[in-house]
Amino acid sequence: MATSTRHDLPVASPQERKDQFEKQVAHLMDRLYGTALRLARNPDDAEDVVAETISNAWKKLDQLDDCAHMEGWLFRILHRTFISQWRRRQCRQDKEVELEPESGDDRFSLFEKLHQPFLLWWGAPEKEFINTLLQEDIGKAIDHLPDAYRVAIVLVEVEGYSYEEASRLLGLPLGTIRSRISRGRCRLQKALWQQAHDAGLANCCSQPPGTRGGDV
Amino acid sequence: MTESWISCEEVVERLVDYLHQELDNHTSAEIERHLERCHDCFSRAEFERRLRERIARSGQQEAPERLRRRIREMIDHF
Ligand SMILES: [Zn+2]
């Protein structure tokens, strides 16, 4: 901001600084809210997370070296804000997730469900499946994940953080992140499959009797 | 020189890490070569990639006007 060489205003006035901040925040609002909603799961909490994020960001605005880095910086604050709230609530439950035994859900693959010989001559059921997925189905499936998996999935799959960045943000070992992503993805896929089935949308994908059985 | 080809099972095992670009260059290149030759693994990788794109989009949601107003008012009071 201060590096701009505008003839009349070498340094932004407090009001200008505020206006600029507000403009940048407004521009990112849909993504801030969307991410907060995936993390917090309900609109009221999501709005609180966004508000606290903006307030934290304003207090630390001097630490931002370059306005061009605003977006990444703001999202890291959003995640830290959420995570610190969540950790306080989560200590006990988080342990339980760690102790949860591996289940069949942790190996579930949507692709394997869809990509089967008796379905293939229909075309490409797996492409069909993705094309008919609604954005709200995906939101719902993410919301149903246990907290520890959901947060890792949002950081890595939604926000595109590396495992290492996620490990730093969450204060967890890299191996834990890796396993949460892997298990979280399988559970997410299972939830999508289940939802499609419940909605009767997976009729092209349901298994005819006598083929590889098992529950959905 | 014997070339060790990576198997379908290994590709499936590492596909998620591959898509996240979390593998070393050598392993990553091996998987790439496998995907060029193996139709099944290629379809699987495409599926996972496209699903991931859809999941990434779920981080975008129209913010309620109420929230926008709240933030504007908050910033005005800073
Ligand atoms: Zn293969």
Offer a few descriptive terms.
heterodimer; A: 216 residues; mainly alpha; Rna Polymerase Sigma Factor, Chain: A; Arc Repressor Mutant, subunit A; 2 domains; 10 helices; elongated; disordered N terminus; disordered C terminus; B: 78 residues; 4 helices; binds zinc ion
Structure in words:
The complex is a heterodimer of chains A (216) and B (78). With 216 residues, chain A is mostly helical. Chain A is built from ten helices and no strands. The termini of chain A are far apart. Chain B has 78 residues and is mainly alpha-helical. The longest helix of chain B has 19 residues, at 39-57. Chain B starts with 7 loop residues before the first helix and ends with a helix. Chains A and B meet through helix 1, helix 2, helix 4, helix 6 and helix 7 of A and helix 3 and helix 4 of B. The structure holds zinc ion. Zinc ion (ZN) is lined by residues 8, 11, 34, 38, 40-41 of chain B.
Task: Summarize the entry for a quick read.
The complex is a heterodimer of chains A (216) and B (78). With 216 residues, chain A is mainly alpha-helical.
